[in-house]
Amino acid sequence: MSGNASPRTVVDLALEVRSKNAGPFWVTMELFMRDAAGYAVVADPGFLDATVIARLYGVPADTIRIFRIPELNVVKISFPRPVAQGSLRDRDIHAGQHHVPLALLPLPERF
Fold this sequence. Notes:
There is one protein chain. It is built from 3 helices and 4 strands. By secondary structure, it is α+β, with helices and mostly antiparallel strands. The two termini are 15 Å apart. The model has no long low-confidence stretch (mean pLDDT 89).
């Protein structure tokens, strides 16, 4: 975010949004928020929950794990990879690009 523009997406409130392998069958994404105010927005289950992640990533909501860590202003999300790491249909062997849809998620209008 630059200048005095209002934050519009999750990444605008974050220090870093990243994704990585959590073994050959799971992906983990981490939202490192700049401050407690940004954390409060993304940690709110009314904004970010398993249903939202399921919609963004096409995985069953009941397989998604969300960990909220207020002491660190971090939200961690894990879910099974749609295909095993390194398999023929794997398009991102390190899961390094999985975070993009989450980073670009629009913030709630009430923010």
